[in-house]
Amino acid sequence: MSDLQDEAPLVEKSEKREPMGVLFWVCVGWIVLNVFGAIFANVLPLQNPLYQNYALVNAGPSLHHLLGTDDLGRDIFTRIVYGSRVSISVGVGAMIIGFGIGAPLGMLAAYRRGRFDAILTTVMYVLLAFPAIIATIAVLSFWTPRSLYKIIVVIGIASIPLVYRVIRTATMAVATKDYVTAAKVQGATDRRILVKELLPNIAPIGISFLLIGVATVIILEGALAFLGLSVNPPTPSWGNMINESRTVLAQNPWLALFPSLAICLFLLGLNFMGDRLRSHYDVTEVKL
Amino acid sequence: MSTEPEKLLVVEDLTTTFATPGGPLPAVGGISFNINKNETLGIVGESGSGKTVLSRTIMGLQPRTNVTVTGSVLLNGHQIVGASENEKRKYWGIDVAMVFQDPMTSLNPVMRIGKQIDESLRVRLGMSREAAKARAIELLELVGIPSPERRYSAYPGQLSGGMRQRVVIAIALACSPKLLMADEPTTGLDVTIQAQILNLIDELKERLHMSVILVTHDLGVVATRTSRIIVMYAGRIVEIGDTREVFTNHRMPYTRALLESSPKVTNPSHTRLIAIPGRPPNLMKLSAGCSFAPRCAYATERCHQERPELQSSGAPGHFFACWNPLPASQGAPTS
Q: What domains appear along chain A, each with residue ranges and CATH number?
């Protein structure tokens, strides 16, 4: 073939991707460390998160209490590690529910369109119009006794319309592309098109939204905990630690600072990771 | 007519109407034609003449709502009008396959090109993974992609436009379709690549004994590569006939206007191109008469009142729809 025009652009070096960068790996390391701490909190050489040392209340950071103690003399570092259990499992659990239901519905609606899409989208928009935080507060106020799984379920359900909307929009942008029609006229079934053509193309958006969603849910759990609507004390969560610190803010600012910092750094890590992953796996940005 | 070759595609009185907020929009109206085996048919017309809607309707590709299709499309014995998605899936890829206009959007950007060819081989023909890969590499070679083994695992983003269009053709050919629908297959490509791709389609048609429908607005494209031409205007056929006949002995003023508006090498330099005055009509407000009448230099009162039906020019297979046809250039005018 004399396709001189065609010969040139196959670039071997595009096989090896550009490196992710140090920041990405720092973020991954931090997230992994947090998750590790949450899972193995009771195995790690930590103090008892509920042990109250009345001889040492509202102490600042020291060697024995790395991040100090709270108003009841409990070790803050230990409580932050144990608190990550609640925060992370609410974040991940709620997003599993949200994506498990919202994402398939969104993809299906965007692909099928028609009446199915119209009805579902209307329902979801009605749900969206109702502020999620008010709804979760209302439900959690009456659904007692509160437990971790109830919080996960309520926040998870509240997140379905948000996930639905993002995934539906992302899918719609892909579903009208010629390659979807091309797969169709080659005889691909709807299921194949959804799984093989649409899913890989919306995955980057889905994953970054998932990570940001986990972050958002952790903040929401914090807000609920601050209102006293999350897990019951004395079980620590990042949110209810900040809540408890409120009364002793003047005497012990560390108590508010460290859990806030924990939330902040964890979220920052998730967001950076999500953003970097999205741009890295976006092969649709043709670089010719 | 026993000497006639077997018809692969028979289209009869095909109408596609879109329901729009402003009322029904007849994008394709009352079209009948057929295609023989191993024949290339060209469909030409300006933008908005209904070429693409016609080709999609023949494929059975319509939006799920707001569209009404009447008439009949018999493809290799299958009725396509009114067929369910499941029925269509049986002939899609096997009886008919499609090459799209823009190779930049007709390949899945996150799937290796080999996989995209494999898909239909394995799903439709039930080939094993290894057999499908071998066949996919064969197909890549067939469409003229150098070092196909290496390209098999390339992503579409790593290929140029011309290469991508070759891959699109390879995908379409995977299940050896009997009819290849090429909807403006070269519009998205560089001029230098256009001829290569058209020659490739031509060559493959001969080798694989396919029929091809070549939809284009470029008369130069159809001139040498088709055996018959359909000229469309405002969703209707205004002239149909053997390519040679239509080029040399066209009777419909619109066909002449189209031909005159494309540049010729034999013209002296600085010759002005003749453009067709006016614009294609609004399909929602078609007059009762000939839809080309408002732009036609030969239009008479009758043209505005009554729609001309297709009539024979005398030459076999050559029909045109005009009340005041141009005189036949060879021999005496027929009417």
A: 76-280 (1.10.3720.10)
The pLDDT assigned to A248 comes to 81
ipTM over 0.90: no
What stretches in chain B show pLDDT beneath 50?
Answer: 1-3, 331-335
| Beta-carbon separation of B160 and A288 below 8 A | yes
Q: Give which of A6, A176, A194, A288 to mutate to test B binding, by max B Cβ within 10 Å.
A: A6
Closest by CA position to B28, among listed B297, B215, B205, B275:
B215
Query: By the 8 A CB rule, do B230 and B44 touch?
Result: yes
Among the listed residues A195, A105, A185, the one whose alpha carbon sits nearest the alpha carbon of residue B96: A185
| Neighbouring C-beta atoms of residue B210, cutoff 10 Å | 23
Whether the per-residue pLDDT at A143 is higher than 50: the answer is yes
- Listed as own residue / partner, the contacts of A7-14 with beta carbons closer than 8 Å and 24 or more positions apart are A7/B146, A8/B160, A9/A288, A9/B158, A9/B159, A9/B160, A9/B163, A10/B150, A10/B151, A10/B154, A10/B158, A10/B159, A11/B158, A14/A287, A14/B157, A14/B158
Tell me what pLDDT residue A78 has.
86
Q: For helices A76-112 and A22-39, give the axis angle rounded to 10 degrees.
A: 110
Helices (H), A61-147: 76-112, 114-129, 132-142
Residue in chain A closest to B122 (alpha carbons) equals A188
DSSP result, A46-86: ---TT---TTS-S----SSSTT-B-TTS-BHHHHHHHHHHH
Q: Containing H/E element for B312?
A: strand B311-312
Which of A113, A180, A186, A189 to probe the B interface (max B CBs under 10 A)?
A: A186
Please check whether residue A39 is in contact with residue A81, taking contact to mean a CB–CB distance below 8 angstroms.
no
Alpha-carbon Rg for chain B in angstroms: 21
**What's the alpha-carbon Rg for chain A, to the nearest Å?**
24
The residues pairing with B319 across neighbouring beta strands, listed in sequence order, are: B240, B312
User: Of all helices (H) and strands (E), which one includes residue A268?
Assistant: helix A253-280
d(CA A184, CA B159): 23
Considering only CB atoms, which chain B residues are within 8 Å of A177? 105-106
- Sketch the domain layout of chain B as residue ranges: 249-263+272-335
